[in-house]
Amino acid sequence: MPALPLPLAVMCNLACEASLLPRVRMAIAVVAQEVFAEDGSAPGYPLRWNLAKTVLSPTQAQAASMMVALVVSPDLLAAAAGAGSTDPATMAAAITDEQILDAIRQGWNAVAGVNPTVIAEALQATT
Asked: What would the pLDDT profile of 35-66 be if each residue is shown by its tens digit?
C-alpha cells in the first residue's frame, strides 16, 4: 500500500470542513438523478436505484457519512495534498466540483452494496 499523501488527522479535518459539505450534498443529488436515468436492467440497478432514492435529498448526516469515503478517494486526496496547505478550507477549495462528482460516481456501487463480481460477470457475458 502506498504512503498516504496527507496524515490521517489532516484528512479528518478535510472530511469535517464545512465549506465542502454543501458541495458534496449537491453532488450526491446530481449523481442520484443520473442513476434514475440508467437502464433498469443493468446489473446492480435495484441497489443503485434504492441508494439514489434514499439520498436524493441528502441530509447533512448522509453527506457527512459519505464525506469520509470521498476524502480518501485518490483524486480528492491528490487535489487536497496539492493545495500546499493543511488548512481544511484551503484543501477543500482545491477540490473541483467535477472531482467530487467523479468520486461519488466511482463509489456509488460500493455504497449501494452492489457486488463488483456481479457487474464483472455481466460485462463478460455481453462481450
From this structure: 999 999 988 999 999 999 988 876 778 788 88
Q: What are the pLDDT digits (tens) for 112-127?
A: 999 877 666 766 777 6
Question: Do residues 81 and 89 touch, judged by C-beta distance below 8 A?
Answer: no
DSSP 3-state of 79: helix
8 Å CB contact between 86 and 6: yes
Helix (H) or strand (E) holding 118: helix 116-126
Between CA 116 and CA 103 the distance in angstroms is 17
Cα dist from 19 to 7, 26, 103, whole Å: 20, 12, 17
Nearest to 88 by CA among 11, 6, 21: 11
87 DSSP 8-state letter = -
> pTM for the whole thing?
0.82
- Furthest CA-CA distance within the chain: 48
Distance CA 30, CA 103 (A): 12
